Amino acid sequence: MTSDSSPVLIVGLGNPGTIYAQTRHNAGAMLIDELLDRTTPMPAQLSVHKKTNTEVAELTAGRLTNRRTILARTRGFMNVSGGPIKALASYYGVKPADIYVIYDELDLDFGQVKLRLGGGDHGHNGLKSVTKSLGTPNYNRLAIGIGRPPGRQAPADYVLKPFGKQESAELPIMLADAADELLAGMS
């Protein structure tokens, strides 16, 4: 799915601030922490990249993947994440086919993960913003299943609520599985 001539950009979608940190909508941002913890020889840390309003960790080949990798989280709200992602891609010279956007997906059961190149946005405003800003849907997407809201709860309310007790207990396993899927799909 990637070409060797440019770095890989992996961006986790989410909303800023502690109020949103443990919500379902921040599953993508949470996965960045899992990936940071996997870097060797020691965990990497994000730092503010002022030109793009993001937090980034620049990794040399071999620290996480066999290619130079930029891990990132946007610092603004998910619905306007496309601009910062486009700015990162431009700054680092990353082609859309080498961009991996990680996001929460209502249409997958909790814990399911799906990696795909291109496709629709499934009503996800973060993906809509990214597609519009990049001018193409041909970037990689890693969907992390959060399941549908119970009863008649509005999807917008559901994604902005923290994971339930049972889900929170299973969250580390889900994130580890999602990281495995992403890294396997990149090789």
List the defining traits of the structure above.
187 residues, alpha/beta, Rossmann fold, seven-stranded mixed β-sheet, 5 helices, 7 strands
Folded structure, characterized:
The active site is at 25 (proton acceptor). One of its GO terms (molecular function) is peptidyl-tRNA hydrolase activity. TRNA binds at residues 20, 77, 79, 125. Pfam families: Pept_tRNA_hydro. Keywords: Cytoplasm, Hydrolase, RNA-binding, tRNA-binding. There is one protein chain. The chain is an alpha/beta fold and 187 residues long. The chain has a single domain (8-186), classed as Peptidyl-tRNA hydrolase (Rossmann fold), CATH 3.40.50. 32% of the residues lie in helices and 20% in strands. It is built from 5 helices and 7 strands; from the N terminus they run E-H-E-E-E-H-E-E-H-E-H-H. The protein has helices at residues 27-38, 82-92, 125-134, 155-159, 165-186, and strands at 8-12, 47-49, 54-59, 69-74, 99-105, 113-117, 140-145. A 7-stranded mixed β-sheet has the order 2-3-4-1-5-7-6, sandwiched between helices. The radius of gyration is 15 Å and the shape is globular. The mean pLDDT is 94.
Please provide a brief summary of the model.
With 187 residues, this protein is of the alpha/beta class. 32% of the residues lie in helices and 20% in strands.
Strand order across the largest sheet = 2-3-4-1-5-7-6
Rg estimate, integer Å: 15 Å
Q: Assign the CATH class.
A: Alpha Beta
Q: Which runs of at least 5 residues are low in confidence (pLDDT < 50)?
A: none
Strand content: 15-25%
Biggest beta sheet attributes:
7 strands, mixed
- What is the end-to-end distance? 8 Å
SS element count, helices: 5
Catalytic activity: an N-acyl-L-alpha-aminoacyl-tRNA + H2O = an N-acyl-L-amino acid + a tRNA + H(+)
GO biological process, one term: rescue of stalled ribosome
InterPro entries: Pept_tRNA_hydro (IPR001328), Pept_tRNA_hydro_CS (IPR018171), Pept_tRNA_hydro_sf (IPR036416)
Subcellular location: Cytoplasm
